[in-house]
Structure formats: structure tokens, C-alpha cells
TrEMBL record:
Domain Fatty acid hydroxylase: 178-307
Protein name, per record: Fatty acid hydroxylase protein
Membrane-spanning parts: 44-66, 78-102, 138-157, 169-191
Chief location of this protein within or outside the cell: membrane
Organism, as annotated: Rhizobium phaseoli
Origin superkingdom: Bacteria
Record-level GO BP terms: lipid biosynthetic process
GO CC field: membrane
Compartments reported by the entry: Membrane
Pfam family name, one: FA_hydroxylase
Length: 344
């Protein structure tokens, strides 16, 4: 597959798509009906359908009985941790092996031309990004994922969360299922802006941003506080008219859904001329520039708040202009403080 038909590569070997990143047309005004209809299949396939199917499979094959979950216990919590860890290992590992270990498509469609394994970095445990990212994923990420899952299932089993059956309220359940990605996007944008405040960035979010060149295991490589904030998206179902399957879908959308944004490749080759779009470009630009694209472009929140970067020259100019305005504002504030101090 010739990736230069879809983008360009610079002298460093970094690849960028020809088309700038776009926000979904769902919230465009005036409404663009044809654009929405053309985009709609991408809302479901492949990623959202995978995460929804995994939630259904969990409910059918993994989740203990309601009677068991009425009482918090180490046994069933450990069972869920084991299943979550195995599924993360298989799902994340499949991308890691295909793209980074076997390098089956070499660096075709790879945003950053280098592979993390090629460089040691003291920012990571054992100076290895992959080792650090994997340990943080299993020692903190999957632990907190399981804790949220256990807490929510216990709440459902004891009647503390609203539980609607599909037979009784099919349209309500369908509506909530449709907005699960929108709930995630809103939640992610809000907590992401929060942890980019100076104090929380330094002590919490910088752990995730150590992976400037993200790879699959970077997806859940976070500080425990960020894991709790990020995976806490499932807690909305304590007040939403919902049920355990939709709560699991919400949790899987966050846990498994972190992969596409961190896979490091714009497209994944799956044999022959078949490609799967990762839709990772906007989030890759966030890892590259830090202060843009706090959301995932489903809702144009970054456009509304002036932090959107689509990867184009215009987007770069807007970002640099924003940096200059902030620098000028800080300089003016410093001057005022100096003048005030001198006057006193």
C-alpha cells in the first residue's frame, strides 16, 4: 500500500494526511443533512459496534449473577479484573504486535516516523516507553477500570442505579445507547481541560503526555487520578435511565476506545487493499502540541473554545497566534506587577 497516495512524509519520516482533520457534522449549523447521512455509518462502524458488542458479550458470558453482586466480594471482583486484563492484553496487544512488534506495515501511515522502542527515555520506568505504559495499564488502569465496574454492578444489583429493560422502554434504551459516545466526548473534554491546569498537569496528566509518540499501550498509560477521572464516565449511569449493559458499553467505550486515538497510525492495513481509519489524527496533534484538541472531534467543542487544530497550515497559524496572545498577556501582567511594586 502506497501511503503517499493519501498523505505526505517529511524529511524526518513523519507522515501527515492530505486532508485536514474534521469535526463530525452532527452539530454543524445550519444542519447539513447529506453530510450527516454520509457520516452516520462511521458513527457505528467499526469502533462503536465493537465496543457495544463487547458489552453484550460481557453481560452474557462474564458478569456474575445479580445475587452474587449484591454483596461486594474479592472473588467476583478478582474474576472481573482477570477478564478485563486478558481482554486488554488481547485487544491492545493485537495492535501492538501487528504494528509495532512485527511492523507488518512498517511506517506506512505512521504519524511519527520513529518507533518508541528505538529510543530510551528517562521519563519512563526502566527508560522504556512500552514497559512503562504496560505496567501503568495493568497496575493502575485495569485496577481502576475494574473498581468502577464492580461499584456500578453492585449499585445495579442493590437498586441504587436506574435499571430499565429493553422490553419495557425500548426507545429510551435505544436513545441512551445512541448518545453513549456523546456522553463520553463531553466528559472527556471537561476532565481533559481540567487536568491541563498547571497543578494537575504537572502532578497527574504529564504521565500520559510523556508518550509524545503514542503507541497502543499509551492508551491507558495514566496517573491513577487520571484513570479515575477518565473511567468515571460510567458513573453517569447512576442517574441516567439506563441498565448494566449500557453502563458496560460506556465503560468499554472509554477503556477499549482509547486505542484508536493512540494507535499512532492514520490507517491500519488489514490485508490486500483494505484499510481501517483510526481517526487518530486530531488526538495525535494533541500529543504533539499539548494545548490543542482536548476532545475527539465528535462534538466541535475545541472549535467552540478556540483550541482546534486540524493539522493544516491555517491550523498551525491559529495555534501560534493563540500562543503569541497568551505570551503578550503574561508579559503585560508582569509589567503591571512590576510597575505596581515600584510605586509602592
Amino acid at each position: 500500500m502506497d501511503d503517499l497516495k493519501f498523505g505526505t512524509r517529511n524529511k524526518r519520516g513523519d507522515w501527515a494526511p492530505n486532508q485536514p482533520a474534521e469535526t463530525a457534522p452532527l452539530f454543524a449549523f445550519p444542519p447539513r443533512l447529506m453530510a450527516i447521512l454520509k457520516w452516520l455509518p462511521h458513527y457505528f462502524f467499526p469502533w462503536n459496534a465493537i465496543f457495544a458488542a463487547s458489552a453484550i458479550a460481557y453481560w452474557a458470558l462474564v458478569i456474575p449473577s445479580m445475587e452474587t453482586m449484591q454483596t461486594l466480594g474479592i472473588g467476583w471482583a478478582a474474576w472481573l479484573y482477570a477478564v478485563n486484563a486478558i481482554c486488554v492484553l488481547l485487544f491492545y496487544g493485537a495492535f501492538e504486535v501487528h504494528l509495532y512488534v512485527l511492523k507488518r506495515q512498517e511506517n506506512r501511515f505512521k504519524y511519527n516516523g520513529k518507533f518508541p522502542s528505538e529510543q530510551k527515555n528517562k521519563a519512563f520506568w526502566f527508560e522504556r516507553q512500552n514497559v512503562d505504559n504496560m505496567l501503568r495499564t495493568f497496575l493502575s488502569g485495569v485496577v481502576i477500570w475494574t473498581a468502577v465496574e464492580v461499584g456500578m454492578l453492585w449499585a445495579y444489583a442493590n437498586g441504587y442505579a436506574p435499571w430499565l429493560s429493553f422490553a419495557e422502554r425500548p426507545w429510551t434504551i435505544a436513545a441512551v445507547a445512541l448518545v453513549v459516545p456523546i456522553i463520553h466526548e463531553f466528559h472527556f473534554f471537561c476532565i481533559h481541560r481540567l487536568i491541563h491546569t498547571p497543578f494537575l498537569y504537572k502532578w497527574v496528566h504529564s504521565v500520559h503526555h510523556n508518550s509524545v509518540n503514542p503507541s497502543p499501550w499509551s492508551s491507558l498509560s495514566m496517573h491513577p487520578v487520571e484513570h479515575l477521572l477518565y473511567l468515571g464516565t460510567a458513573l453517569y449511569h447512576l442517574i441516567l435511565p439506563s441498565n448494566p449493559i449500557l453502563m458496560l458499553y460506556q465503560l468499554h467505550y472509554a477503556g477499549f476506545g482509547a486505542i484508536p486515538g493512540h494507535v499512532g497510525f492514520d490507517k491500519v492495513e488489514i490485508g490486500g487493499d483494505k484499510l481501517i481509519d483510526s481517526h487518530a489524527y486530531a488526538h495525535y496533534l494533541h500529543h504533539k502540541y499539548f494545548e490543542v484538541n482536548y476532545g475527539d472531534a465528535l462534538i466541535p467543542l475545541d472549535k467552540w473554545f478556540g483550541t482546534w487544530h486540524d493539522g493544516s497550515a491555517e491550523g498551525e497559524a491559529q495555534m501560534q497566534a493563540r500562543y503569541r496572545r497568551r505570551k503578550e498577556k503574561l508579559a503585560a501582567r508582569k509589567t503591571r506587577m512590576e510597575v505596581t511594586g515600584a510605586a509602592e
